[in-house]
Here is the input.
Amino acid sequence: MSNALAAAAAGFGTGLSLIVAIGAQNAFVLRQGIRRDAVLAVVGICALSDALLIALGVGGVGALVVAWPGALAAVGWIGGLFLLGYGVLAARRVFRAGGALAAEGEAAGSRRRAVLTCLAMTWLNPHVYLDTVFLLGSIAADRGPLRWTFGLGAAFASVCWFAALGFGARLLSRFLARPAAWRVLDALVAATMIALGVTLLAGT
Here is the structure.
């Protein structure tokens, strides 16, 4: 029992250390949380996607994908272009005043857009595969029979992080009620997305 708890705790700590770093996915979840727009759906997509990818890594799928380098290169190009496009849109919001900067949720049509963007942000980001499938999968393999317990701990870390990021972002809503604060946030999001997109394209 103590070995299982230790494996789960190690998985939790490892998973948390990999997803806490500022990235495209975290920036998107934070923005949606502050806007109170499709937060539950976005958090659920991120957490369930991580759980699935972690399961694939623990199950050894990472070794199969490594045998086909072209797959990762293709995802790198698609993901890099997507991140650049989203970064440009965020940069446009910095110079555009009006209702788009309101902290309250927008029309219901934006929810579908948010869900589709979240899916693309998650599944077209090669770093997600590197962290969950390859890195966590290889670390979990060292745990032997307890590798699935390690994976469960890592998946639980994703649930806790994205829930805290998405729903806890509301605490910032008073500060971000000012358009100037939203412009700062969008500028940070744009810089993050564009930098990651350029990095992905340069590395493929």
